[in-house]
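Spend some time on this chain, tokens included, and walk me through the fold:

. . .
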Amino acid sequence: MFRLPRQIFILAFVALSCGAQAQFDFGIKGGLNSSTITFDNLEENSTIEDLAGNNEFGYHAGVYIRVKILGLYIQPEFLYSNLNSQIEVQKKNGETGSQDFTLSRFDVPVNVGVKFGPASIFGGPVMSYNLNHPSEILDIDYKGGTLGFQAGLGLTFGNFIMDLKYEGSFQSLAEEVVIDGQTYEVDSRTGQFILSLGYALF
């Protein structure tokens, strides 16, 4: 597990030191996200047939800095995010159940974009620091921080920006789940589609 605060400061300073001729925008942004959690490589056992996460809506809000230079822009963001999902538990004896999954976290994406008139394409890494245990019923041994990626499309109109992006994870959120007192190894990751609206204050 990497040390998230150090990575945040390194990427933020890199983004803000792109040259004296760079143009800066600072603004606020927020929106909705549709997130899910996956469970791959579930340890073979005599009880659980499958675990699956259904998409649920969450939200995010925070601030961004856009550094424009040489026809490109670098955009670090500092966001509070809420991810929700519904975990379906299917047992081998035919029983089924569902568990709530709610994760609050602090996200720092740093995307590089190329503009084509008002439109743009972008992508880059995102660092996330988990702020809570995501499920009280399904005991997940969650990690403090994870590294992921984002890619998407954006629009700029006046002081407003809008973007739609997908986020995936390079690292597992949890390596174990505990169901009915039994621990199973698993590779659990989150993914989400994110729709955001931002406004440049200056």
Summary: Strands lie at 23-40, 48-69, 72-91, 96-116, 119-130, 139-142, 145-157, 160-169, 174-179, 182-200. DSSP finds one helix and ten strands in the chain.
